Model the fold of this input.
Amino acid sequence: TLSTAIVCMQANFPLPPGSVLGLLGGGQLGRMFAQAAASMGYKVKVLEKGECPASEVSAYHIDAAYTDKKAIEDLRQTTAAVTTEFENVPAEVLSALAADGACVTAPASHAVAIAQDRIDEKTFLQSVAGVPVAPHAALLSADDADSLDSSLFPAILKTARMGYDGKGQRSVNNIAETKAAFAELGNRVCILEKKLSLAKEVSVIGVRSLTGQTVTFPLFENVHRNGI
Done:
């Protein structure tokens, strides 16, 4: 996201060092973003309620909720580009920031909206991007469990929105367990994903500038302990 934000074009030239970059979210990833930006000569303005890791190393800190209208207007008026450190920042905030073109948001609000919902995410990857995904089924209510194909089990039931590092997830082996897990998760919309035998999990970060330049960072293997 740092590369995306900095190479964005405004008035047909890259943002020069000294420009202020907006950051939605103030966690550890935001802290690393701010440190990297500072080393390149950019200033960061963080929007996060309360003291946070990113605010400790940033030039500016807006102590407010993501949806605070005054805070959003502050970012829109004082930053040339805004990014987000995680996918659960309200997508509509990014839309508001980019509304009149005064502020570039990277990623765009529609991309964040897809990443916030596991059902939309899998639909996009499979139907639009053509990327194979694990067998799965959406559960809008507990009754949807009755029509599940038995071949999906054993599986993991996940809330469609929020949840990470094992939070908002339950392992299930049959329809009865799925219904019970659905209730434990607050009867929220969920997605059931078939468990697969995985050799390893890897992550790769790719970035694309608004001018079409692309960069792929080195591939890394993720190590899991106790589901995290």
